Amino acid sequence: MFIQTESTPNPATLKFLPGRVVLEGSPREFLTPEQATVSPLAAALFEIAGVTGVFFGADFITVTSRDEDWAHLKPAVLGVIMEHFMSGAPILTTTETTAGAEDFDPADAETVSSIKELLDTRVRPAVAADGGDITFRAYKDGIVYLNMRGACAGCPSSTATLRNGIQNLLRHFLPDVREVRAVA
């Protein structure tokens, strides 16, 4: 098994590409060992000293470290990922999701639908290429609230991505959008 790695815009996060499907359906993020109990792979990755986050996309895994010392951490992460896939164990032991609730006025349903469509078709594929994900959380008074996950969470360039990329895109197509903000 050959696992490729790619750097991400976030120096604390590295993207691992095992060359196969990692997770079908919605991406999943684990920020603590307690959250990772539903995933044998995420739990094993959290056993590596320094790992502070694990994110599963459709065909990639991003791992975030407390330090940026990938020279020592990368071989251990590669070993855990390879061992997991060779074992045939599932990525998740439950299909239960922990997605946050969305908040918007029902009168804004059409605008929210357009926001989600733009995010799904124009933003999320590009963000996934960098090892992350962005999901809609709320829309109030012209402000779009988005949740940044994976390599996007804590990324030094995430503010620029929100302001110069996503905000400008949404404003171009939806004049009612005034601002885009990140939420946890």
Query: Low-confidence spans: pLDDT under 50, at least 5 residues?
Result: none
Name the quaternary structure.
Answer: single chain
Number of helices: 4
For the terminal residues, how far apart are their CA atoms?
A: 35 Å
Which structural class do the helices and strands define? alpha+beta
Helix content: 25-40%
Radius of gyration: 17 Å
Average predicted local confidence, pLDDT:
88
Element order: H for helix, E for strand: EEEHEEHEHEEHE
The number of distinct β-strands equals 9
Biggest pleated sheet = 5 strands, antiparallel
Structural shape? elongated
Strand content: 25-35%
User: Order of strands across the biggest sheet?
Assistant: 1-2-5-4-3
Describe this structure in words.
The protein is an alpha+beta fold and 184 residues long. The protein contains 4 helices and 9 strands. The strands form 2 sheets. The protein has a 5-stranded antiparallel β-sheet with strand order 1-2-5-4-3, with helices on one face. Helix 1 (40-46) packs antiparallel against helix 2. The longest helix has 21 residues, at 109-129. The mean pLDDT is 88.
